[in-house]
Structures are given as C-alpha cells and as structure tokens.
Write a structure and sequence with these properties.
The strands form two sheets. Strands 3-2-1-4-5-6-7 form a seven-stranded parallel sheet, sandwiched between helices. The chain is elongated, with a radius of gyration of 22 Å. It is an alpha/beta fold and 388 residues long. Helix 7 crosses helix 10 and helix 11 crosses helix 14. The longest helix is centred in the first third of the chain and has 24 residues. The chain folds into two domains: 185 residues, Rossmann fold, CATH 3.40.50; 177 residues, Glycogen Phosphorylase B (Rossmann fold). It is built from 15 helices and 13 strands. 43% of the residues lie in helices and 14% in strands.
C-alpha cells in the first residue's frame, strides 16, 4: 500500500501525521509513505529527520483581506493541484490522508481528480478551510474532539507519539525528575507556551516565582529559544526553579510534573489528556477561538482550568494554581478527569480507517463516469457508514 500524508506547516499538523506514519510502519514495515509539504513549513526539517520521504508543492495561503494576492490564488492553487496530482501518479498512491494546512487542500483536490480515496483528520475543535472541503469528498473523517462539526465525523482523538501513549507517569516520575535536575518530592509545575514559548506565560510564571517558592512548589519552565527570563534571587533553601529554552523530550517533562501551565493547542490538549496531567490552559488570544474550544472538553470533565490570556498574572497563579499543586487529593482527581478525555489508541483507529479507505478504493476501480457517487458530497464510491 502507498500512503500519501498531507499535513505541513505547523507541528500541530505534522506531529499527528508522523504518529500515523509510525503506526502504519509498525503494522507493515514495507508500506510506502510519502509526505507532501511546502518549502516554508517545519516539515522540511521534521519529515526527513524521522526517515520519511518528503515531496514539496507550492504553498497556497489564502489572504485574510481583499488584496491583489486574492486574484492570484486560483492560478497558484491550480499549479499546486497539478504538482500534487503528479506526485500521486509517481508513487501510485492508494490513499491520501490529510491533516489540514496549506498542503492539504491541493492534496484533496488532486486526489479527487485522480479518484484516490481520501481520509481527513481534523485536530482542532474548529475545522480549517482545507478540511471543511476535504470532508465533503469522503466518509472517512476523524476528529480530535466530540464537538467538531464536519460531515461524517468520527471522534477518535489525535494520533500521538508512542513515547506519549506508552508513558506511565507514576513509574517514570522519579527518574524523570532526576534527569531534569529537579527535586524528588516537591510539587512540580511545568510551564511551557509551546516550542517557541509565550511571553504572557513567561512573565506571569516569573512574577509568581516567589509565591510558588513560598508554597514549596518547584518549577520546570521552557521559555522558548528566542526568549529570556530573569528570575528573582532565590531564597535560601527554596525549591528549584529551572528555566530552559526548550525541552527536547516532553514526555519526561510530563512525567516529572504534577500540573502544567500552557497554551491550548490541539496537540498539547491531546497529549496532556493521554498522560492524565491536569493543566491551566491559556488559549491564544488571536485566531478564531479554536484553542479555547480545544480545552473545553477537558475543563468540563474537571481535568483542567482555563484562563483568558489577559487575566493571567502572578495573582491568578497564586489564587488558582498553587491551591491545586498543594492539594494531592485534588491533583489526583483532576489527573483522573483529564485521563478520561484521553485517547491513546487514536493512531490505531486511524490506521484502520486508512486501510479501509484504501481497500474500498481498490475494490471500486471504476471511472468517475461510471461511479454514481462521483461528484457527491459522500465521496466517490464510499457508502454510508464507512469510516464509522
């Protein structure tokens, strides 16, 4: 089987694609996997690093305002679809799996043109344009939250790295804290605004450092490679406050922590739920509000708190985070609630969807003219209930 993955641009698109690729290879080491990407995305570094073939097509961003660039979009999209279709021909693709972003829309349109089956995975609670279109071409649609509105959607969660899905936080906590330079027993707060950091989280955590220390809380703070933080001088005997630019192995940080202060990206929410780590989510204040929606199922279940970016400061941390970190029973209850929202088997569920879609495509073998479903929103040759 030849699988083409389309999900470039950001880690939120690339990481689930890589997790699916790994799951497919574990099941069948001989499977062919090709990733589509653009020269401007993180995939240029991440895909080859993980040993997968990367083919590039032009990026086609959609302007957010009425400008001259909008007039050039149809031509750019046509070129990107043509190149994507050529790649599908080259690798003899059996199925295209899209994760959204600049790469996904040309891939869906090329697959539609070539009558290659499509599987759509939407990581965010609020779908992007590419996946809203792609979901009209197939019944194999997977979502990461139960609230996502897409045709034929099945709630499966987000495919995650095996280092996350196999993590036993309790058994790993002591060695993880030792490796990260933390004390063995103090309540531990993990702070991270993502791979690039977040200024609001950095400033609030540093300002709360004296209060955290007074409460006996130690901190592991990933502030971002382009940011710096200046910590106040620690009091004698104060718990550790370790600030680092970046954490290479987030699974170790999750194991070491009792609670996290973080943004609410879809991947972060999925990983924390999978490992049962409660958190205070600070949704990014720009965009279409999808980060708050990503966190809402976990918060509703009791596995986390949510605070507006503008309201996050040292006083909020003192009034809301410290009481949780210093209450072992509440930590345990919130951790269990977070875990109830987790899906550690999303990669395997998506593998089965991919195989089913490819098998249906191979069995169909009909031209668009002879296929009564071609041109319908159900997608060519896919019957009701497929992907369910």
């Amino acid at each position: 089987m030849q699988v083409v993955l389309a999900g470039g641009g950001t880690a939120g698109h690339i990481s689930p694609a890589l997790a699916l690729a790994d799951a497919l290879r574990r099941e069948d080491p001989g499977i062919g996997i090709t990733a589509l990407g653009t020269a401007r995305g993180l995939e240029v570094e991440l895909i080859p690093k993980h040993g997968y073939n990367l083919r590039l097509i032009p990026a086609v961003p959609l302007p957010r305002r009425l400008t001259a660039d909008l007039l050039r979009v149809p031509g750019r999209l046509r070129d990107a679809v043509d190149q994507a279709a050529g790649i599908l021909d080259d690798v003899k693709a059996d199925v295209v799996v899209g994760f959204g972003g600049y790469v996904a829309l040309p891939a869906y349109l090329a697959a539609r043109r070539r009558q290659v089956p499509i599987v759509v995975h939407e990581a965010n609670a609020r779908p992007g344009l590419a996946n809203r279109i792609g979901a009209r071409f197939t019944r194999f649609v997977a979502t990461s939250t139960p609230d996502t509105r897409l045709p034929h959607a099945r709630f499966v969660g987000i495919p995650l790295r095996s280092a996350i899905t196999n993590l036993d936080r309790g058994a790993t906590q002591a060695p993880a804290r030792a490796e990260l330079g933390l004390g063995p027993a103090a309540p531990t707060l993990l702070v991270s605004g993502g791979s690039q950091g977040a200024r609001r989280l950095n400033e609030a955590a540093v300002a709360a450092a004296p209060a955290l220390a007074a409460a006996g809380v130690q901190v592991l703070h990933a502030h971002g490679p382009a940011n710096t933080v200046t910590l106040p001088p620690p009091a004698t005997g104060a718990p550790t406050y370790r600030a680092v630019p970046y954490l290479e192995r987030m699974e170790l940080a999750y194991a070491a922590a009792d609670f996290m202060l973080c943004r609410a990206g879809a991947l972060t929410c999925a990983e924390l739920a999978a490992v049962g780590l409660p958190a205070a989510y600070v949704p990014l204040p720009i965009g279409n509000g999808e980060q708050r929606l990503n966190a809402e199922p976990i918060v509703r279940a009791g596995g986390g708190l949510v605070v507006d970016d503008a309201d996050l400061d040292a006083a909020w941390i003192s009034g809301h985070v410290i009481p949780v970190l210093t209450d072992p029973d509440r930590l345990a209850t919130m951790g269990a609630a977070a875990a109830s929202c987790g899906h550690r088997d999303a990669d395997q569920v998506l593998v089965r969807m991919v195989r089913k879609a490819a098998a249906r495509g191979a069995a169909r073998g009909s031209s668009p003219a002879s296929d009564p479903a071609a041109g319908s929103g159900a997608g060519p040759g896919l019957g009701p209930g497929d992907g369910q």
